[in-house]
Amino acid sequence: MTERLIRLMRIINLIQSKPGILARELAERCETTERTIYRDLEALHAMNIPISNFGHGKGYAFISNFSMYPLDWTEQEAVSFSMLPSVLEQIKTLIPEGFDSAYEKVMGTHHKEKARRVDIVQHVADVIQLGTPAYREDGRSFLYDIIQATLSQQTIRTVYYSQGRNEQSQRDIDPYYLVPRDYRFYVIGYCHSAKDIRTFRISRFRDVEILEQTFDKEDFNLKTYMKNTWSIERGEHQIKFKVRFHPDSARYVKEEELFMKPKLTPQKDGSLLFEVTVNHDREFLNWLSQYGPDAEILEPVSYRNVMREKLERWKTLYEV
Fold this sequence. Notes:
By secondary structure, the protein is α+β, with helices and mostly antiparallel strands.
């Protein structure tokens, strides 16, 4: 069994290093028969190793971008494999020569790949300078931990500050996605306390611990979850806005990089009819306010009244 394990690993390495290698060559390099190689290839196929025969005389190669480097092991798989020498200690004299070096190469590759991943995540976290407000710039950033947990699909235990309730609470969160919005980073994931999907602002994390517990996103679809969400704040009502932009602002609105795709209809006078359906009004109205009198809400009529009341308050504030 140990001899076959070494041979299977060697077959994978040979196919990876020489795509198109023939069964005859594999047999020669592994010092066995072609019939044995065919049986080994069937075993690898049963293990979901995507090896394909590209036709007579074209040999074997991996499908797509599959590679044993990185090994892509889970921590449990790595621990299990690391225990192999101690398990085989009792039959050490029966193990063929070369096992120790093969084992060392595999484990060396694993540790190197693990270190490389850590370096990449740390580099990304260092490059991205979002999600930490100036008043906390001397505090610890949890971006690295969150990226790492998201990639490895591990639950995080956090202390989170809720602005609405003005209090901190401990939560276990499965971080599904990291989403940038308006110069901030948000985590969208499953909150074990709420037993539902929630959105968390990274700058409000006060502590983050990565747990051993892993998670599965199952059928969660980010695009569906964020449908009709103007930026990050989600609501339950569908509000269809119709806005007319003045000709002076129309061309700038067309260049806006929005998270939703509105319906834009140019008018004969150079103005622009802007139509969009959102599930929450606050962020959309804040965006609209930057255009001032160049943006006129046509529908819903109730929001014309909302804007009128806001303008009356501003007017009162600045009256001499």
